[in-house]
Design goal:
The chain is mostly helical. It has one domain: Nucleotidyltransferase, domain 5, CATH 3.30.420. It has six helices and four strands. It has a two-stranded antiparallel sheet with strand order 1-2. α2 links the parallel β3 and β4. The chain is globular, with a radius of gyration of 15 Å.
Length: 122
């Protein structure tokens, strides 16, 4: 999921539980020209950072501890990542999303989108 600077959803994509989230990172950025991309350590990849920089944006992704060459990042700006976490918590207030009653990915994604629309309209 990606959110804007106000914590409102911009893009929502679903991945299988066994698939890493970073596999959808490029898709989440496609079609957008952000100034800053903030993500957690799970998105620490040279390819992704290069793609973000190619878009003219600043990559605020802390490096993993096992990285041979540590990369600098803006730790103060990284604190804004909580916007995504707060939005995810707001989505989980919808019982059908939190408990995942829907068994198909299509139906689950539809309810996540419905919850996001409800939050946008509130």
């Amino acid at each position: 999921m990606s959110v804007n600077g106000l914590g409102l959803p911009v893009e929502i994509q679903l991945t299988p539980g066994q698939q890493a989230d970073i596999t959808k990172a490029a898709d989440l950025l496609e079609g957008y020209d952000p100034e800053v991309v903030i993500a957690d350590k799970g998105y620490d990849s040279d390819d992704l950072v290069d793609e973000i920089k190619a878009k003219g944006a600043q990559a605020v992704i802390p490096p993993k501890k096992n990285r041979l060459q540590q990369r600098d990042y803006d730790s103060d700006l990284y604190k804004e990542r909580n916007l995504v976490e707060r939005f995810m918590n707001r989505i989980k207030q919808f019982r059908r999303v939190a408990t995942r009653y829907e068994k198909t990915a299509r139906n689950f994604l539809a309810f996540v989108q419905l919850a996001a629309i409800t939050i946008l309209l509130a």
